[in-house]
């Protein structure tokens, strides 16, 4: 694996999930793999889990880590090609990415959607420019439209519980929209659909009218507009708010979609998942978050395993690049 930006960066999502389960069982197996390698983590937006779990995962592999709050501490980045830079942006991404690539063997980036211009957000411009100009593997720490480290975590968590509960057959996995006061990105939901589509699950999406996601991510997905119907018989319930895609970035008002104990009672004693942070009693009731059905803390714990799995794959790729060619080898000898 050369980069980690979409599910297409891995040859097989089910195999990557199996590798993550293996890392969960043997977390110290590759504790020297990252020796003398440096990971750079660039945050344009806040983070708790992604920042700490990825840093911890890198340390578990013997890597050094540098973290930068790029929005506060970096120069304002210009991303337009060929522009006369006489505005507010001091540094072009071409130099910034290339220079960071001089210091880091792997670079992670968090660049949330601005939720003003769908076309601009859906291009995921900055992360692709880093892939083009950094010269090293690039990891998404949540881009405008995807959060692949979260999705790998989510599948790892589902597979772990499936095995533990000895669930036979295809699990019913429901992604439900829930209310929020702020306009949030669609990244977590998009990615969850992108990744679950590659597993043998019965996936159902439920949301109010007006909360439709981009067709790029919902093709082939069953959509049920009645939340209670959707929750019936669910084995896993994944809760997330997102703002409107069609009326781009607008907050959708539907307070009745909050997750309550009564709604959870409709499920097949489903495990409740959320990427966090979650606003209690606005999105999910205390009674549900504090119940045994909630696995949100364990899910967040699995972020470390998912990040470690991805770093192992990228470090193994770097090893293949580090091996001296026959010609270089003969010059050294
Ligand atoms: N990385 C996980 C989720 C991050 C972000 N949530 C947030 O911004 C919540 C902010 C708040 O609740 O004020 C999102 O939905 O994509
Ligand atoms: N779930 C998640 O990505 O959390 P942070 O935003 O805190 O990193």
TrEMBL record:
Kindly give the InterPro entries that the UniProt entry links to this protein. ArgF'-like, Asp/Orn_carbamoyltranf_P-bd, Asp/Orn_carbamoylTrfase, Asp/Orn_carbamoylTrfase_sf, Asp_carbamoyltransf_Asp/Orn-bd
| The protein's enzyme class | transferase
Which Pfam family, just one, is annotated for this protein? OTCace
Q: What is its EC number?
A: 2.1.3.11
Q: Which residues bind carbamoyl phosphate?
A: 47-50, 75, 110, 147-150, 275-276, 303
Report the GO molecular function annotations.
amino acid binding; ornithine carbamoyltransferase activity
Q: Where does N(2)-succinyl-L-ornithine bind?
A: 142, 180, 240, 279
The Aspartate/ornithine carbamoyltransferase carbamoyl-P binding domain covers 2-159
Pathway(s) of this molecule = Amino-acid biosynthesis; L-arginine biosynthesis
Does the keyword field hold Amino-acid biosynthesis? yes
Ranges for the Aspartate/ornithine carbamoyltransferase Asp/Orn-binding domain?
188-312
Q: State the reactions this protein catalyses.
A: N(2)-succinyl-L-ornithine + carbamoyl phosphate = N(2)-succinyl-L-citrulline + phosphate + H(+)
Subunit relationships: Homotrimer.
Q: What is this protein called?
A: N-succinylornithine carbamoyltransferase
